[in-house]
Amino acid sequence: MMDQRTPTNKYEIVVVDNCSTDSTKKVVDQFSAKGNVRYIFEPTLGLSYARNTGWRSARGKYVAYLDDDAIACPVWLDKILEAFETVTPRPGCVGGRVTPIWEASRPEWLSDWLLHGLTIIDWSDMPHILTNLSEEWLVGANIAFPVEILERVGGFTPNLDRAGNNLLSSGDVFLENQIKNMGYSCFYHPDITIGHHIFESRLSQSWFIRRYYWQGVSDAVIHLLQERPSMLKRLRFAYSQAKILLQSPGKLKTLILPTNNPERFTQKCFTLIILGHIYGVLRFVRPWQ
């Protein structure tokens, strides 16, 4: 962040410490002497809580998010401001490309589609409005909003995204859908680019199996938040999904058998999404409360 072409007096860096046990505060304090870096401690564990503390503490008109394992390109802030101030009507959120910084070799079983599970996106070389968020979306590691929009929508929902060791996700996409429902667009610009560190610990099949099962759980939470179905409707949904799985021996086979084939492992992960969705729909009571 310190090598941005945007003049330092035009932006601030807010570092939200969400219950870390390392030397985060000490490191941030060393940079605070530069004048535009602030440290804030958020005691409630959870990514959504940390992100909400960030925008509520920000002093600017816009707030842009960058994860602690990401590196912004030098024109990152310039391009974010350009999108907000030149695209008409003004978008409700903007974001862009996320490229991997591999800490180990990419496994042969890791398909391009499964890269999305590592928060890697590259939708096109052309800036454009995202019309279908189930096909193209922005990610929380590289996204920006007008503060007034976050105030109107209430920020990130605390029922989604990481909290401790769980792998809940999709709080970013849920917020994007809320913004679209308010009549604003979500805008993708490829030059709003960050590099995202891909830790070796995440390059195992066991991590992806867990990650995509929890994607299904996350989808279930969104399902419940959006539709608030009765328990009877939940049971009917779970039954219909389980029936589809039981009638698909190919999916069950890929779920059970080990494989290094990228297509088969991708199918295994997609089947785990269904299982996680079934579990989540039956498990959670009222996530909107």
TrEMBL record:
<dbReference type="Pfam" id="PF00535">
    <property type="entry name" value="Glycos_transf_2"/>
</dbReference>
<dbReference type="InterPro" id="IPR029044">
    <property type="entry name" value="Nucleotide-diphossugar_trans"/>
</dbReference>
<dbReference type="InterPro" id="IPR050834">
    <property type="entry name" value="Glycosyltransf_2"/>
</dbReference>
<feature type="domain" description="Glycosyltransferase 2-like">
    <location>
        <begin position="7"/>
        <end position="105"/>
    </location>
</feature>
<protein>
    <submittedName>
        <fullName>Glycosyltransferase</fullName>
    </submittedName>
</protein>
<dbReference type="GO" id="GO:0016740">
    <property type="term" value="F:transferase activity"/>
</dbReference>
<dbReference type="InterPro" id="IPR001173">
    <property type="entry name" value="Glyco_trans_2-like"/>
</dbReference>
